[in-house]
Amino acid sequence: MAGRVGNRHGALIVPTAPVWLRWTWLLPAAFLGVFLVYPVIVLAVTVADSGAEGMLGRLTEPAIWQVTGLAVVQALASTAVALVVGLPLANVASRYRFRGRALTQAMVTVPFVLPTVVVALAIRSLFGSGAPQGFWIVVLAHAYVNLAVVARIVGAQWAQHSGDYESVARTLGATRWRAFVDVTLPSLRSAIATSAAVVFVFSFTSLGIVLLLGDPMTRTLESQILRQTSVLLDFPGAAVTAVIQLVIVTLVLLLGAMAARRAPTRRGKPVALRPLPAAFIGRFAVIATAVAGLAIVLAPVVALVVASLRGSRGWTVGWWSSLGSIDAGTTRLGSPGAAIGISLTYAVVTAIIAAIIGTLAAMAVLTTGRSRILVILAIVPLGVSAATLGLGTLLAFGRPPVDLRATGLLIPLAHSLVAIPLVVAVVAPGLRSTDARLAAVAATLGARPSRAFWTAYGPVLRIVVVASAALAGAVSLGEFGAAAFLGRATSPTVPVQIVRLLSRPGEQSLGVAAVLAVVLVVITLVVVLLVDRWGAPARRTTRQEAIA
Amino acid sequence: MNLIWVMPAEGRNPMRARPLFLMAGSAAAALLLVACGGSTPPEASAPDGPSTVRLLAHDSFVISEDLIAALKEETGISLEIVSGSDAGTMVAGAVLAAGNPTADVMFGIDNTLLSRALDADVFEPYSSPELSSLVPALQEDTGDGRVTPIDYGDVCVNIHDPALADAGVPRPATLDDLIDPTYRDMLVVQDPATSSPGLAFLLATIARYGDGWPEYWAALRENGVTVSGSWTDAYYGEFSGGGEGTRPLVVSYATSPPAEIVYAEDPKPDAPSTSVMTDGCYRQVEYAGVLAGAANPEGARIVVDWLLSEPVQADVPLSMFVFPARSGVELPPVFTDFAATVDEPLALPAEEVAANLSTWLAEWGTVMGR
Asked: Out of B3, B23, B59, whose CB is closest to A484?
């Protein structure tokens, strides 16, 4: 993410840059200014008005630092577990050719977009009474959700490894382990640093999972902010906590960026998928890793499917048949089917907004000078507390004179803010690793600057824009916080509907909530598989295959 | 997170590159579509004629569509319900927006949060003419004429009877029983810092034991109580009567057993498998109030009256599983049969809660910290 903010190719990246490229930063800068910076300022001013005396004194209270310490330990543990599970998965799913590889890769993405309340309950019901408590179940849940971050980011880099260097090392007498530690790991360092920073940030700022599964000792600053705002109404205290969180998140992202920058990278296209190893042990190891990874991802999902098909009297399709219209109980919450429509609409709008804004922001990596700051600004939403952003947006745009709530735009706008950092993370490296000489060649051959730009960057833009739009849409589908905060009660999204169902007793509530969660999984899978197919057609067949 | 699509060399065919402005165009069109499709006439605050009233409610607020339609028919008011997330977050937003609110009327602020909202002058005084029809205990409970009680409910320990029977253990009757070794490892409660029923249960113990409450909680902890982050996780995750859990005792509501019946699969069971321990219950009252600085205060007052009207009050039990504040409203049979009536609910004065809450929560954390 922040990983590649810098550029080391010197001043001018696109030799014949079209003039408009210098101005692409305007729209994202305006967007972030209006929808990110302005609400935060409005909130800050309001809090200051309501009495901000002694805010500095808060910093000396031991309680806040105790929570901070616990949250850091938790996030480090979550990151470690996600890396340990995610790295083998990244290796297998991005390098070997086997039946079900695409599905494995798509499935890994699912936990990332499931509403946290669903993940929490699925994991809880999976373990049953043997569920680990507090700290460890939170760590497990975070690792589960963020598996996709590691598997995808590291996998993308690992896919470029032919294994030649490792072979050389082995020929020179290195053991397999030695070759891995001395050759493979260093060349993956940039991807590992980037993904570790992102997983850390997501785990450190996590709210839903901590609220649902945490015990009093397992808190994040985010849950502390929520507690300070909504239980204690201690706004100055919440403001201090929010600032601490923002500072730590920014530091971690910068650290990740620095580690990634210093790391050697092999740039290039992904090498062909390799066939499974001939030796039984190797073949077994690959298949076993894929199966284990799939099992880890699937187990909670299977628990959901089972829950959606079971009542107290055994198997039933009753919950599924109540998707359209339901008996007395659920009609009053609005039909689940309608919620799916609303969620899809928001997802499409979010995908469009976030892809455009994020891509334009990412284009700043192709320019020089101050506009590149935008790439950093665009990832700030990762660190801004959701409660802060929600309250700020409400105060800035939820009442006269500027009332956007009735337009239905507030939720997609908030979702876009969440998704833009991810869009930038996808688009920027793609642009940066494109060979700028293509544009120069095109220009030499007589293409005008714009034409030359599209010749060089058009192909990669097509892929990354579609990919990041899908990602943004997926984020929107699973988002709960902003939707609960800024929505209209009569048109809830699917995650909001799930949470409402789960906030009342009765097996129908649990059953229909499970149905909605399964629908969400299916939609996500379809989107990811479609984009996988459309975005990356080149790797399917390999020359080795033809020769063999 | 599909960064694999990013690989630059993969898009081989420049002819298929799609100019960005096309996408920008469709985005603008989509924005326009959403903007037009979803919009309602802004602030039609003409005193006569149809007007819109915005009702800010927490996300558990539910009411039948027919009633909203009837309100429109009778008064010309179209009610727009805006969601304020959970009750605490909604009140936080209202306090910050005091004087220039995001809605006209608020519903769902309860007695633990009320005094903070009153201190921040969130509400404009209004005494509904319907007040005299309320149950006597609630008629004076109006925050000096600034809010109106709409419904009430009790937070109580719920019991999964079959599980207790299997264990050969009698039902617990009082808060004191819960620290008896008979009920070791059986109770699940919610973190009062993050959960509304969790907070209510803590307040119940404070109301009952006074300064001795930390000792009670230490004893609960000794006896193997488990703390969940939320009601959902406690009820569906840990409670044996709600789903996959193993613990037969949970902090929930006095109306949870009838909800078990209403939200059961057809054909509904004759009786719920859960019941209520009626000692040690904390009473929660939910209020509505006209927000100070409302764009449509006239309409807001009509909506407050409407919330207390007979049809809405009769709808409240089955849509939100609480008791109507209005006296003499006929309760649905499932309520009269299975909802527990709590004769002596516990409660603390709102001012006392406001003054001590953060100290209590910190002390609770110390007692329960492991």
From this structure: B59
